[in-house]
Amino acid sequence: MNETIEGILSHYSVREFTDQALTKAEIDLLVKSAQAASTSSFVQAYSIIGVSDMALRESLSEIAGNQPYVIKTGQFFVFVADLSRHHKIGEARDVATDSLSSMERLLVATIDATLAAQNMAIAAESMGLGICYIGGIRNDLAKVAELLHIPDYATPLFGLTVGHPTANSAPKPRLSSELVYHENQYQEKTMDDFIQYDNSIRDYYTARTGGNRVEGWTDQIERGLKHSTRLDLKSFLESKKLGKK
User: Fold this and answer.
1) What is the C-alpha to C-alpha distance for residues 169 and 184, in angstroms, rounded to an integer?
2) What stretch of H or E contains 31?
3) Helices 24-35, 103-126: inter-axial angle, 10-degree rounding
4) What values do phi and psi take at 15, rounded to 5?
């Protein structure tokens, strides 16, 4: 155990922030930390958009389900899988860019952006800041792309809100390592293997909500399986010339 690991294991999402804006120095340090993440074959296929304009934040918050912590926060970042730079290089060097429309390239760009975001999240928490990922911007990626002027060969993926928390919380219990880690080959689990974890999550929600939410993890997953969401993503990505083959 060391300070870095202690920080990682202490993570929890923050949804209530002061309205104190991050300083330029803090933002610069967070972006540099993000850029220090591993990147596949050094392609660096991502961009980060910092959204400080309150009108833009309000529009993005509405898209994300009216989440107030998109607006009231230190800074709101949008992470973009970005192959547009690579397309520009190909055109300038008179090289075909058809490969940029492959699913593999989209996956690489998505992984690059995600690794960068997690680096930023860990850096932010080490600075005493709180974070929350915002997947809700995918409720209407076309509108997000329009608002942020995202070019072809690029797509927004998720937001990351970073700011000064108004209160402390505690980490939500994760699956036991035995349910996640497999040695040498995948080991199938049964529903019985989830009973203990279900109980711990049920206790967590009961305590946190004063009994207003009482459900286990498998109950939560079951509820999610009953609804298909964001079925327009494939057509949107293809419209941005991504993941077409």
Assistant:
1) 36
2) helix 24-35
3) 130
4) -125, 10
Instruction: Give the DSSP H or E segment for 233.
Output: helix 233-239
Per the DSSP assignment, residues forming a β-bridge with 131 are 162
Coil, helix or strand at residue 69: helix
Gap between the Cα atoms of 130 and 50, Å rounded:
16
Element (H, E) at 219: helix 217-225
* Whole-structure pTM value: 0.95
Q: DSSP code of 19? A: S
Q: Return per-residue pLDDT of the chain as tens, 245 residues.
A: 899 999 999 999 999 999 999 999 999 999 999 999 999 999 999 999 999 999 999 999 999 999 999 999 999 999 999 999 999 999 999 999 999 999 999 999 999 999 999 999 999 999 999 999 999 999 999 999 999 999 999 999 999 999 999 999 889 999 999 999 999 999 999 999 999 999 999 999 999 899 999 999 999 999 999 999 999 999 999 999 999 98
CA-closest candidate to residue 131, choices 145, 114, 117, 143: 117
- Tell me the residue length of the chain: 245
User: Could you give the count of Cα atoms lying within 13 Å of 2 in the half-sphere of its Cβ?
Assistant: 1
Instruction: Considering only the C-alpha atoms of the chain, give the largest distance between any 2 of them, rounded to a whole number of Å.
Output: 63
The closest alpha carbon to 229, from 154, 166, 141, belongs to 141
Q: Write out the E strands in 4-120.
A: 46-51, 75-82
In DSSP terms, 40 is beta-bridged to none
Long-range CB pairs of 204-212 (<8 Å, 24+ gap) are: 204/172, 204/173
